[in-house]
Structure formats: structure tokens, C-alpha cells
Design goal:
Number of strands: 6
Largest sheet: 6 strands, mixed
Helix content: 25-40%
Order of helices and strands: EEEEHEHEH
Structural class: alpha+beta
Radius of gyration: 13 Å
Length: 98
Amino acid sequence: MEKVKVIFRKSENPYTKEKEITAFFPELTANYGNIVCYQHIGQHGEADLSFYHSTKKAMPDEYENLLKELKRIYHDYKLIVMQRINYTDLKRAWIKIS
């Protein structure tokens, strides 16, 4: 079973002031300067790396619902929850599309 690293971070929606949880995938291919991400609403996309840096670490009880959703999507993969970006992984993801 292939492993996929995922990092859960939280931010505050500036309009609703509600907490939003985002899953970041530092190993998945993205345009230079971006990182693949996933949210309940909007689902997969790319975010500028500065967005990642503007977020805070999410606790397990905060991201458990999003992790369950991702496990249904990535049922053929083992999701490895990481605490922070390994920039070597991120650089490899950028190189893949260069």
C-alpha cells in the first residue's frame, strides 16, 4: 500500500470567523510555489505556499472528520499524518512538473 503524507492546518474564515481545516499534501505534484490541498468545501486544489504559512497546526479532534473523508477518497493509500512540511518532499513535487 502506497503512503501519502498529509498535514492538517487550521485557519479562520475572514467572512464568517469560523475555523476551517485544510489538509495539505506536500508530495503531490503542484505548480512551483504551490502545495496541493483539500477542504470539505472546494475539495482538491492548489494553494500558494504563503497560505500554508498563514495557518496554524490543527489538533486531532479538529481534523478527525476531514481525515475520515480523506480515508474514503484515498482508500487504496495509507495516509501518514505529519506535523510540518518536509521541504525536500515539496521541492520534489515541484520538480516533477518542470
